[in-house]
Amino acid sequence: MPPRKKLSNLDRARAIGWLQDSVAARQVAPRLAVAPFVIIRLKQRFHAAGRVQERQRSRRPRVTSQREDRFIQRQAMQQRMATANNIRQRLQATTATLLLVVRRSETAYTTLACVQGVQSEEQP
């Protein structure tokens, strides 16, 4: 299954413009390479909220950068016997990030909690 395509704000505005010009959702969808249901939901959201921007998500904010994530993954792959604490110490030595919890996830390490300057208990 291919990854989902997110519509940019420009594409969303185009779709709403076409819909307001009486173009059917089934004709708009192929122009933007999305399913017709995506356009129908966009139209419903536009009529309900009056805007086309993507809504805010309520998720935990990222604390490690993509570069730090790649570093953690590379260390996990290069040194298979390294513990989470060893990788955390290497990351702290190379960057200024304090990792509180690191957990093995499939073939790479994934950070669970990462806060600069805040102390909490480590989880297994």
TrEMBL record:
InterPro entries: Homeodomain-like_sf. Residues 50-69 are annotated as: Disordered. This is Uncharacterized protein. It comes from Littorina saxatilis.
